[in-house]
Specification:
The chain is an alpha/beta fold. It has 2 domains: 112 residues, no CATH class; 263 residues, Alpha-Beta Complex (Spore Coat Polysaccharide Biosynthesis Protein SpsA, Chain A), CATH 3.90.550. The strands form 4 sheets. Strands 10, 11, 12, 13, 14, 15, 17, 20 and 21 form a 9-stranded mixed beta sheet that branches. The radius of gyration is 29 Å and the shape is globular. The N terminus is likely disordered. Belongs to the glycosyltransferase 92 family. This is Glycosyltransferase family 92 protein. InterPro entries: Glyco_transf_92.
Length: 439
């Protein structure tokens, strides 16, 4: 018993000794601080946010692309852009993340776009209303009013919430889509540099696949902030067609989802760009009586304040005919893949008895749904811009193949930009390692 008491006393002495030693190591006038749990400005999301541009919707044959705040109508305030199997539409519910462990569902309405070109899959808008007293940051779709397991779903961030600190752009160009290892490097660089000179602030490009040289070029433009690349792996999920006619081109979805990406780009730009140019990479929206697009649109806006869609004719410059002088057949560009747009100065007059090809400059806040050649749903009117005021320069294969060279019109508008264009293109190519000083 005495031995046990002795051991207890020794143990108690050692505990007291170590406590005194710890306190003696604390500097004078220093308080012991017990660490508090970290507080985050935003709660950690209890689910997985989709990191892809195309997200399969579980228990369906559909795909989600992106979600946007849209308060322009009274019956909904959230719009989800998707790719839907048109013969498999089912009741859906929007499931909102409203805050930490506060989630609610509301019924959803599915609107298929008319521009599906008879393909099995087509663009769709899913519309729903955010629950009361909910300031949702994320949303997903369910096939039943409540989820079995929240962890099974990938959620989309809700975009287009107004940010007063974000700088508003004047012009965005939407390009859809790159596919088939597209590697037309020289024309791409020239087109982007012309758009810079015309006052464009940003170009959004949806990329399924491009060649290695073009990828290097676009990486440089992305790093400087002029190009925004959106990876678009549509061929991972569907068999996209390489054309627009289902009877001819077959497949699941028209032209690599062109209509989907155009609409996604319009909504992506809605709160950050005043105007959006909808065209292809081999086209340039070119003003002929103004030095840039900003002065053109300022004039058009004053005269036509209610216009949502400014429709421009697209005129083909066949790349089979060349400027005979060879003035712009520059030695430094000879080993760069692609078309030299400065060499093509002959323009087709469109056959006005046939289908006229139009592309658009739109005010994104006034667009609800767009197609390739027109805007079928908008909060405004359409104005057809006179072709001699502004038109798309389309460097392409001949559309009117029966026309001979002497029947084409000479058009050297692009030459007006050559003084700044050529050195700017050289810098972009050199930055990508595609132009050497010895060239």
């Amino acid at each position: 018993m005495e031995m046990r008491k002795c051991r207890t006393g020794i143990l108690l002495f050692m505990v007291i000794y170590f406590i005194i030693a710890i306190f003696n190591t604390i500097p004078p006038n220093t308080k012991m601080v017990i660490p508090k749990p970290k507080r985050f400005s935003q709660p950690i999301l209890p689910f997985l946010t989709s990191q892809e541009s195309i997200t399969p919707l579980i228990n369906t044959k559909h795909f989600l692309v992106s979600a946007f705040m849209d308060q322009r109508r009274k019956d909904f305030d959230i719009r989800i852009i998707g790719i839907f199997k048109r013969n498999s539409i089912q009741p859906l519910y929007c499931f909102f993340y409203c805050g930490e462990f506060f989630n609610e569902t509301t019924s959803a309405s599915v609107q298929l776009h008319f521009a599906h070109f008879n393909y099995p899959y087509g663009p769709a808008d899913v519309l729903c209303r955010m629950p009361e007293n909910c300031s949702a940051t994320h949303v997903t779709l369910l096939t039943q009013p409540s989820p079995d397991n929240i962890s099974d779903h990938l959620w989309l961030p809700i975009r287009n919430k107004k940010n007063p600190n974000e700088e508003r752009l004047n012009f965005t160009v939407c390009i859809s889509t790159l596919y088939g290892d597209y590697n037309n490097v020289l024309q791409f660089a020239q087109t982007l540099e012309v758009y810079k000179l015309l006052g464009v602030n940003r170009v959004v490009i949806y990329n399924t696949s491009c060649g290695p040289e073009l990828d290097r070029l676009l990486t440089g433009y992305s790093q400087e902030g002029f190009v925004e690349m959106v990876q678009w792996p549509i061929n991972k999920y569907l068999n996209p067609s390489r054309g627009w006619r289902f009877q001819v081109h077959k497949g699941d979805l028209q032209y690599f989802g062109q209509i989907v990406t155009l609409n996604e780009c319009v909504y992506r730009s809605m709160e950050r760009s005043r105007y959006v140019v909808l065209g292809d990479i081999d086209e340039i929206a070119m003003p002929y009586k103004h030095n840039n697009l900003n002065s053109l649109m300022a004039m058009l806006q004053r005269k036509h304040p209610k216009v949502a869609e400014f429709s421009l004719e697209s005129h083909v410059f066949p790349h089979s005919y060349f400027d005979p002088s060879g003035r712009f057949s520059l030695p430094q560009w000879r080993n760069v893949s692609g078309i030299n747009i400065l060499e093509h100065i002959y323009r087709e007059d469109p056959d006005r008895k046939m289908f006229l090809h139009f592309k658009m400059i739109v005010q994104p806040k006034l667009v609800e749904q767009t197609s390739v050649h027109d805007v079928p749903k908008k909060f405004g009117v359409k104005y057809r811009v006179p072709w001699n005021l502004c038109r798309f320069i389309h460097i392409h294969v001949a559309r009117r193949t029966s026309l001979m060279l002497e029947e084409l019109k000479e058009d050297k508008r692009l030459w007006d930009f050559q003084e700044k264009l050529i050195p700017n293109v050289d810098k972009a190519l050199q930055r990508a390692g595609l132009l050497t000083t010895e060239s």
